[in-house]
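User:
I study polymers; will you set down one protein's sequence and backbone structure tokens?

Assistant:
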Amino acid sequence: MADKMKAADKVVLLVDDEPDILELLEMTLSAMGLKVDKARGVREAIGLLTEKRYDLCLTDMRMPDGDGLEVVQYITAKKIDLPVAVITAHGNMENAITVLKAGAFDYLAKPLSLEQLRSLVKSALSLPHAEPMDDSKQLLLGHAAAMQKVRDLIEKVARSQAPVHISGESGSGKELAARLIVQSGARRDQPMVSVNCGAIPENLMESEFFGYKKGSFTGADKDKEGLFQAANGGTLFLDEVADLPLTMQVKLLRAIQEKRVRKVGATVEEPVDVRIISATHIDLAERVKQGQFRQDLFYRLNVIPIQMPALRELREDIPQIARQKLKQLSSGALVRFSDEALVALKNYNFPGNVRELENIIERAIALCAGDVIEVQDLHLLPAERAHQDAGEMEEKYPLPEYLDRVEREALLEALQKTSFNRTAAAKLLGLTFRTIRYRMERLGIRSPAGTDDAD
């Protein structure tokens, strides 16, 4: 009853040329305590939008006089503070992604799920009024054009449910950007579940993401919810999404498209309402070209791309950022940078970005003799050493790829020493024959034709 009282003054504009669909939508929304206006085409909808203020617009995609994309584009072009959702044909993800890119709040696929409709409506109506982000919320500091573009994008995408993919170097603030999107959006009071995709063993991935039923495998002594269920109603942040194995990419794509998941050992799927934000420091488009990342999943995740700038690209802003970080890390102590220290920071390349800056400041606070941080307290690496360390960092991360390279080199060295006799190579490495055969298959190493152990 309370929800209906709150919704009593909310008005939704329905746009569809099919009377049956309009009637179903009107009945569902009226049962939620909402008022409804109806338009039977694009022109009629635009006419109503010029005359009245609405709290939500729900439009079909295909209509005799145009399509729902035109309604989205009109609302966006006129800068009307109005979430708009589009009903698309089942399986037509291209249309769904097109309207999300154009500024739609979300989409619904036919046949309509009333449960998903009610969830969408509640999220849309809980959006805060559009307001410029004030200085107290601008945790991503800097006046450079690259950072201002990031802040503008965050402010825009926070008001939709479109998947966002955040790219950028390690330490550049990708997770902070994700949290700012959530804090400014309709799901700000719902859970945000973060997961490092490279930290989950491949054989546990499906059960971690989707959960499992009691008895589905050895050790499953009770039902367990997965990450999707934990984030239901909120946001799932997939950090280092490039580390997902191809088998898991297929399952993730289905879960995102269908908005349903099936626990390991279950016979039925269950609906989930989750917004996906992903991030990685690796070029996903390049991974797609290499066949290591599915193109359809990349297309689905990368609806709204955000590129986090490296700290060296914000050189003019480094003194301001450093002062702010010093204020945060000094625990109220009266300590400041000397002018020379700020110049040194401004000229430093920061291969580890903001995370490295924080580490440098924490160390300087501990080492400075008085209340002024001097250049020597910063212990900055020489330029050539910093470049070398950055190269080594790129070689060793992400860790799974680095370990695969090391393992491959060790296997190849042992195999070459034994003329590709796998039995002898296994003995040399302290492995069983079965283990070396498995590892060779996993890493794509094949014995040359004509050798004793050739397949």
About this structure: The mean pLDDT is 87. The CA atoms of residues 154 and 249 lie 26 Å apart. The longest strand covers residues 275-280. The two ends are 71 Å apart (CA to CA).
